[in-house]
Protein 1
Amino acid sequence: MFSTDSTLSRLKSTNTLQKTAFESLLDSYPDHQAARTALRLIEHSKASVFLTGAAGCGKTHLAAQIRKSLQKKWLLFSPTAEIALRIGGQSIFSFFGLASSIYVPNQHAIPTLSAEKIKILAHCELIMIEQVGILRCDHMQLIDVMLRHYLKSERPFAGKQMILMGDLYQIPPNLEQLDKKSIQLLQAHYSSRYFFGASCFQQNFKFHLVELKTNYRHQDEGFKDLLNAVRYNSIDENQLTSLNARCTQDHSIQKVDKIMLCSMPQTAEHINQQKLDALDGPQLNFKAAVAGIQLEKTQYPCDYILGLKIGAQVVFVNKDSQSRWTKGSLGTVYNIYENYLEISIRQRKQEKTIKVERFNWSVKEHQWDPKSNSYHLNTVGDFSQFPIRLGWSMSVQQAQGFSFDHIYIKLDRRNFAAGLTYAALSRCKTLKGIYLKRPFLREDIFSDKRIARFIDSENKKNHWSDQAYFWQQNTIIEALEKAKLSEQAKQQDVGYKLSEQAQKIEWQAADIQAAKQNLKNLEQKNASLLNQQAMHESTLNQSEKTKAALQMLLVFLLLVILSMFFS
């Protein structure tokens, strides 16, 4: 006999259906059709997806949630080791063995991959590349070539489902480390520096472009309109005037906790060191603890050697698990100890001092496991340092992924790149939090026209028949999801009723068992009474025999007495 009490209690205590991780993730975007579309495509199909969107639309968060819920075997890559540390993936250079030099199709040999890495590529179902907007075209080309070569396939990316995530309208791929000849070589063989300059994107590679449009960072509609105008290079005179109204002299904002955004990392480092040197007191240096695989010092998420003084302004480079700070929170060093820092931080117009300890970033690699005949994303190194940088200044590129309450923008016209103005402005949550060193000119605000052409061409490639088919499939999937939930509800109702019936059967069985026990007790009691009755009857019989014997004795004695009397 089994008990259903716990099952019935559980069914009675819950009013929600048991859902998969994917269904729960889908429910977290009830009014976000683009996110739901991307999720369904990734989960239910083999279609490749370019997931894009403006700054602050939650691309990084969505990507992390997808990885948690995804049932497919995936690989996670990023264009740089620094980004890989932040997202918990592996850099493209590390896995594929790419070089910084230009790859020219059919003219340069492809890197050699180990047998283990080839097995990993063969077993994976999906390849994710985050921050693809800064991935150079020849590197994307080489990934395609290597996948085709080592997996013996003629299909783009060897038929693997590709999930590309990033914003093309922000910082472009960096060409600063290339010499003039290399740049000319790149221009001669590719249509643009961006990833879509790879030949497979110009030919038969089909993918769905999904753009996230819900902005979580910027709440003011006027500011969102201004950012979009800067993003798409459609700013009008009124918007430019509104933006340049934020131009002010530095002395007017001395009391505001702000960070200066500039064009070059070297400029930001120089400003930070100047500010630090101007503070009284000794400078204390904290060296990061590095274990396992060694990275270039420029690839770390914060300084390898962190120099601090009491009173130094710092910026947090990660999001605290206890929500004491966010990525981009500014603070002031209040006290310095050997193993921790005390940092004064302003939140919701209140000043508080928090204890900050070292944070550990893990260096990850996809590795083959012969025991399980599969692969895993393993930790092969660690980087431990206080999760802060000097926070008086950062370059716009360094500030990617950060959100600030107040910024002071000082961009050098000599180092402008497409999207730089948009990337800088979009770091701030509000227009009121932006301060400009100088007014923006129209020529300071521009985007690469090839990006717009690429996106327009991809939208046009989705002919009506393809779009109708896609939305038909999307509708079918959505209907199947609803049908599944309805079926789950029916099964839950049936389960509830079955549990009730099972409990009734248990109760009846218990009653029958009790009745049987009562009957047994009655039988035992009756048997005892019968035994007692038999003993009583035996005693009566014995008494009757004794009485008869006494009667016979009395008769005999009477006869003897009479015979003596008459004789």
Note: The chain has three domains: 1-16+484-558, 31-215, 221-442.
Protein 2
Amino acid sequence: MHFTAEIQGPHIACTVTADRAIKAPTFCTSIMAPGVVVSGGVLTRQVAGYLEVALPDLVQGQPHALILAHENPDFIPRNRAWLPLGAYLRTSAGPVPLPPLEQGVRQAEAAAVPDFPGLRLIPQPQSWTPSGAVTPFAALTCAHPAFAAVDALARRRGLAPFLGAGPQVTVTLDPALGDDHILTLGEDITLQAGTDAAVFHAAITLLTLRETHGSLPHGRITDGPRFGYRGQHLDCARHFFGVETILKLLDLMALMKLNRFHWHFSDDEAFRLETQATPEIWQKTALRGEGHAVPSVFGGGISSGGSYSRADVARILDHAAALHIQVLPEIEVPAHSFCLNLAHPGLQDRGDNRAEVSIQGYRDNIVNPALPETWAFLEPLALEVARLFPMAMIHLGGDELPPDAWAGSPEVTALKAREGLATHLDVQGWTMARMAGFLADHGFRSAAWEEATRGNQGGIGHDALIFSWTGQGEGVHAARKGHQVVMCPAQNTYFDIAHSADAQDWGATWAGITPLEQVVNWKPVPDSAPDIADRVVGVEGCFWGEFTTEDAQMEPMVAPRILGLANKAWDRADSVDGPKLRALAQAYAPLLDRIGWQRHRGA
């Protein structure tokens, strides 16, 4: 079989060449949004960006041309990531895979830039006073358990042992320092720190200096984080990332002094956590593709996916805890629930015409909060998930509700009358507040995306932590309403966004493009809103999996851009601009190579 595709203006031109005669096959694939067939076949089924196209009989060795386009004429393919993913033919003899197109980042080695003049360290310390001398070292001696954890990290990622014969590190705990620490570097090393986490971060500094300097520069480092929440998100619903990949990401986060892993395992495409209260949702949606409840959206191919067991969760939590990282789980309420509705009928009003369509093109992707069955399903599910994670916080989603949600639901019309709700956003706000209140009664704090604050009754409330993603304006608004806010503007911190406008690049472009320099070209507290400084508690990088079909494709999208995120999260002086970040990325490149992190392409 032979399959090619290329962008031709607003169209996606595909060619299928069969290695044998095939009678009346169906071409199955996924593109970024709902599509149309311009020529070469007949569209027979569509689920979001997943298409099934009836083709004429294929003659052995004779190319067949198929032209696709997006349903929305303004949705024009921008790069290779917009080409068909997971294409296969359904035939009378069974499904036949088509050769995958080249996927992942195609990015050349960056041109050399001048070396960074200071400590080649991300994040940059709060202060550094060099004394001029250096000491070569291969390993250190220290009895504190945090140093053993860093030694274990180094060894499992292919670096030389961190502990061994070498300079002695003397650790003194001083609670008055809080999360800060002071390192005095010389022939021997003294470390004063307020917490075990601060000791760990100091040890990470020493490991990094060994890798980026090859020696120990003498002097004094005073350091500590700007924000308590320093996060990285991973979408494991659109693409199932293996546990080993998650552990590898956690290790990279630790090297960056990030301390929150936002685990997104539930969305329209799958619910991947093996829950006991609602086993049908992961049993029916963990796999997608031919013959599964969820078709091959976002490149699932004939069959792909998986789920995370209790043992997997325990392993990830133990690994994260050793790195002083907490794990924030996310479910989705009330939208992004296509897979829930497939797996658990009864979450929608039978009298609703359900005409709403999500921004990704899904129908039936919202649950109905006016139904008792919805709460009988959601509350045990949310409580079980929350109880699995020691962070005592659960992210409830709350984003991208279709604009005409529940417009045809008699049950929601009655709910509006009872509760004084006027619009779909009022209903969502009421829903989020009820869910957050239920969880608060059980000792759990809620988090949500920015949309959760909307509605005529104030939205989610209940001290919820709000994530501002479309920009920073919604975060400013939420902070002024009294919420704590994590800033994750897509234009700067979404690592699934393309690095460049090159058609041979890879990634989304809806928020523009995000070259390395753009990751630091913003301020977590905008100049226009100094009054919210005490309400901004962190920043987060996000990686969404719509374009991902192999785990390794994530790596060059995340790093080196994660370096800029890490500095934003830590550096109180916000001292790294674009050119400095480029120089630091150059210094970190050999370290990323040594730990096996792909920087250029992932396929």
Note: The longest helix spans residues 196-213.
